[in-house]
User: What shape does this take?
Amino acid sequence: MEGSYMSVAKTPHGSVVKRRSKSQIYQQSIRSCFSVASRLGLTPGQTKMRLNTSRKAPKSQNITDKVNPEHLALMIKTEWQLSYVTPLYQFRHTQLKSYARQLSAFIAAEKQQGLAVEVGAQQNTFKVSISVLEGLAETNDDPETVLIQVQSKPLFARQDDPQKTVWSGWLSCINSNPEYLRSLSKDFTCLPLFGCKGAEGFTSLVKDWLQRTFDCCFGLLEISQTSLQWLAALWTNCHMESNVQSLKMHWALPVVPPLHVTYTVSADDALDLWNSVRKNSPEKSKRADEEECVDIEEVTRFMQGLMSHFYRHFRVDLSAGDLTQVSTALGSAKRSGRIKISNSRYLINTLSLLTEIAFLKMPI
Assistant: This one.
């Protein structure tokens, strides 16, 4: 089950704090988020969620007929750093061009060390585009995904040289929690999953602008060991329709010196084990007349089978360590919250799971 932790630092009595620390600013933002929840008539108890113990088995989807191929190319085969985002206050999909001008001026001003920059003025250094990435929404409640790109010219570029994309990010909500979304006021738009790539400086600026403009909060979206196990099982299940090539897992074992294990299983062997787990699953018989689903018990037995096989050969108990990374030809995911989706046919399936994780991490 997903968890979140908070650390509190105390200062000595009588000390004078002249500047607010980043942790204090973050805590103030969190309190702001909870005040938003109270305005919505919600409490932490009402919005608490748990990772689903059963989900539909992933199916190959050709989404090129509903998603712009250029947008699709931006999403896949790229490693994204994930964050969660609380609901955006008074965000409107119809105002994206205005938001792009404001963000462009904000970045330019920050890069010029606070010098005033007029919104809408011609900027030769930075240009921001914000657009809708249509076609990814799966339900009527899902807001459309929003794509943000920052373009810039190199310092010594010629005047006629084109600007290059130096930072990209997106806000998404795929197969969301309908009860939670319907409980929100119309003033709030919920896009809980944020992915970005590019320099950390631009990431900080974009997040800062979004927080100031839409009264939202960001937090690192770590992918728990349970969620990594789900991805390992679901991607292995996809081998029947797409060649996953191999299942590669990275484990960190708490020994001295630290031991890092890379465990690679051929796709056929992983699929044989998965089919054996599915065939002997008592849960499967209960769903004979329903759409094919996967249960957490099947995922657990699949991982136990893999770890038992490794122990028989190397006498190393992987269950004593932490699973930190899973990768196949379909994509890769790291405990640190980095994800790469390499096959567009399973983009929706993977984003659905990540959206669920983002909802779990949100403080409200």
Observations:
- Residues 1-47 have pLDDT under 50 and may be disordered.
- DSSP finds eleven helices and 15 strands in the chain.
- Residues 106 and 296 are 45 Å apart (CA to CA).
- The longest strand covers residues 164-172.
